[in-house]
Amino acid sequence: MFGIGMTELIIILVIILIIFGAGKLPEIGSGLGKAIRNFKGATSGELEEKIQDKNEEKKKIEEK
Q1: Domain for residue 27, yes or no?
Q2: Cα Rg of the chain, angstroms
C-alpha cells in the first residue's frame, strides 16, 4: 500500500491520534468515508444520472 510498511503506518496513526485526540477520530473517519463515497459516486457517473432524473422530474411538474 503506497510503499508504507506496518511500522510507518502505526507511527502515522499515533501522530494523528496525538494531534486530533481520541474524541475527534470518529468524526474524521466518518467525514473521510463520506468524501470517498461522494468521489466514487461522482466518478462513476451516478451524480450525472441523479441530475438528469431531477431535471426530468422538474419537466414533469412544469407540464402539469
Answers
A1: no
A2: 20
